[in-house]
Amino acid sequence: MSQSDLKIGIIGTGAIGGFYGAMLVNGGNDVHFLLRSEYQAVKEKGITINSLVNPELHIHPVQAYQDAADMPKCDWLLVGAKSTADNLGDIIAAAGKPDAKVVLLQNGLNNEDHLRPLLPDSMHLIGGLCYVCLFREGPGLVKHQSNGMIDLGYHSGPAVSKEEQQALLKEGAALLESGNIPTRLLPGVDEARWQKLVWNAPFNGISVVLNAGTQELVGNPASRKLITEMMEEVIAAARARGIDIPDGVIGYMFKGTEIMPDYYPSMYHDWLHKRPMELDALYGELLRLGREVGCSLPKIEAMLDQLKFLQARYLSNQ
Ligand SMILES: NC(=O)C1=CN([C@@H]2O[C@H](COP(=O)(O)OP(=O)(O)OC[C@H]3O[C@@H](n4cnc5c(N)ncnc54)[C@H](OP(=O)(O)O)[C@@H]3O)[C@@H](O)[C@H]2O)C=CC1
Ligand SMILES: CC(C)(CO)C(=O)C(=O)O
């Protein structure tokens, strides 16, 4: 099957799904978008990517769906719904061909392990780590602030040998690169997910609790200290589990953040719009995996307690 015959499904068209899906449409691919609250707006006006680094991208008409059962059976599915989404297994099973390649574009630990038992055994599950700064500015409107790289690692499914897995990842990389999306291939997903969490665990939660963007957070000595201490806890837990975290990662992450435009992470937007936050994927799993190897993570635990408090307050008022 040539690349142009492949059907791509976007499961959850928010910031991540809208951005990567639109890039793939722009690259000439046949892309089908599953939407929820923004279905009508996207049907009428399409999807616009307002980027600080690329020219504006507008796609219209959009092959948009409200129900996965109405989508054509897809070869590749990019999952842009958050780790808090319900029924993802059923939705993916309905939208994919039996041997579909499912790329999970979520942050956090063990999302693939939780999704795997809910998928048909014949489907391939691939972890996709997105290094990008995006948020939804309005219905069908995504703001792209910087980056865009996706790292792909095979998690599980019918490809057993390393060669088969790498061949599938190369197919995925070629597809993404047809949409001008830089892609790297990983030997697995675990290590990269832990490394990414060194950034997301402090910045996502602190942006909510302190109601602040990255520029203010890296510029203030008190928040810098807290971010550093939280990073150190994540690194200690990762290393205690045998995960390789390179020396100097904290300095490297601060430098990278200092040169980024002021960014409010995805969790901040959930808090702002009173949606469930990804507390289990970013904090609950981390604490559990840390405890298993005798690591306590007091700053992370305190962050989780504060986020739980804030979330309970706004969800109970809805
Ligand atoms: N934003 C970013 O820059 C980055 C985000 N990430 C990760 O990517 C993931 C997605 O984040 P992001 O794009 O920011 O989140 P968004 O909230 O912008 O997007 C999630 C989308 O999934 C949709 N959705 C949820 N459940 C369903 C369902 N049952 N059926 C159809 N659609 C559904 C939501 O619909 P509705 O409109 O109804 O809410 C929403 O459009 C998260 O795990 C995040 O941590 C990773 C790196 C960077
Ligand atoms: C770490 C960062 C900000 C940029 O690479 C990102 O990808 C995220 O918000 O999850």
TrEMBL record:
GO terms for molecular function: 2-dehydropantoate 2-reductase activity. Residues 8-156 form the Ketopantoate reductase N-terminal domain. One of its GO terms (biological process) is pantothenate biosynthetic process. It catalyses: (R)-pantoate + NADP(+) = 2-dehydropantoate + NADPH + H(+). Its EC number is 1.1.1.169. Residues 190-310 form the Ketopantoate reductase C-terminal domain. Pfam families: ApbA, ApbA_C. Keywords: NADP, Oxidoreductase, Pantothenate biosynthesis. One of its GO terms (cellular component) is cytoplasm. Coiled coil: none annotated. It is an enzyme of class 1 (oxidoreductase). Pathway: Cofactor biosynthesis; (R)-pantothenate biosynthesis; (R)-pantoate from 3-methyl-2-oxobutanoate: step 2/2. Catalyzes the NADPH-dependent reduction of ketopantoate into pantoic acid. Belongs to the ketopantoate reductase family. This is 2-dehydropantoate 2-reductase. It comes from Halopseudomonas aestusnigri.
